[in-house]
Specification:
This protein is mostly helical and 192 residues long. It has one domain: Four Helix Bundle (Hemerythrin (Met), subunit A). It is built from five helices and two strands. A two-stranded antiparallel ribbon has the order 1-2. The longest helix is centred in the N-terminal third of the chain and has 33 residues. It is elongated and about 55 Å long.
Length: 192
């Protein structure tokens, strides 16, 4: 194994460790959200997202190792900078959302939408980060097949399921609570 491939393995392992840290934060935030009346959306697509993101990290290294992909400095260094920038963007998003950040789609009625930080500029900044990282991280060590496969599959999940689910969940924050006079519905009418 080359030094560059060994360092790439370390980068992938550190990225995986960061994702595990995200899951700890997510679990804590989910418990808080549910304790405060949070409602979850999109349960059916979540396992596919977990599988894809796990396969992404494995694929990055596996392709580089088994495909004998070289580290090409003019490509690898800029992609590393971009991948690290994506991590900074991810940390910013998590910090701005605070307890409302989650890997799952959970909204707490009454909290409203976050409009600060990157949300001043775009509605789903985390997905911009994921899309960019999905190209940059594999290309650090020229795992171009992983970059293409992840980008296509991620686009299907994001645009076909995740973003519409989040938009539906966010719209629910704008609706009157079930059982209030403005809603015209009772708690029995609310979707599960």
């Amino acid at each position: 194994m080359t030094v560059s491939l060994l360092l790439y393995a370390v980068l992938i392992l550190l990225t995986g460790a960061e994702r595990l840290g995200e899951l700890v934060i997510s679990k804590r935030n989910a418990a808080w959200a549910f304790a405060n009346g949070g409602r979850e959306y999109g349960l059916s697509h979540f396992p596919y997202m977990v599988t894809l993101h796990t396969a992404f990290l494995v694929g990055c290294f596996a392709e580089a190792y088994f495909g004998h992909r070289p580290f090409i400095p003019w490509l690898g260094w800029p992609m590393l900078v971009i991948a690290l920038g994506c991590q900074a963007g991810r940390f910013w998003i998590i910090a701005v959302l605070g307890r409302q950040w989650n890997t799952r789609v959970i909204v707490v009625p009454g909290l409203g939408r976050i409009t600060g930080g990157p949300y001043r500029f775009v509605t789903h900044p985390n997905y911009y980060v994921v899309i960019i990282e999905g190209i940059a991280l594999p290309l650090v060590h020229t795992s171009w097949i992983t970059a293409i496969a992840f980008t296509v599959l991620n686009a299907i999940l994001l645009f076909g399921f995740r973003i519409p689910t989040e938009n539906r969940a966010l719209r629910s924050l704008d609706e009157p609570a079930p059982g209030t006079p403005a809603s015209g519905a009772t708690a029995m009418d609310s979707p599960a």
